[in-house]
Amino acid sequence: MSSEKPKKKRVRQNYVDNKQFLAAMIEYRESVIEAKEKGDPRPVVPTYVASCIMKIATHLAHKPNFMNYSFKEEMVSDGIENCLQYIDNFNPEKSRNPFAYFTQIVYYAFLRRIQKEKKHLYTKYKLTEHVNVFDQTSETQAHDSDGVKMYDDSIKQSEWSEEYMNQFILDFEENKRKKRIKRKSTIDQFVEEEDGTR
Question: Is pTM, for the whole model, over 0.90?
Answer without folding.
Answer: no
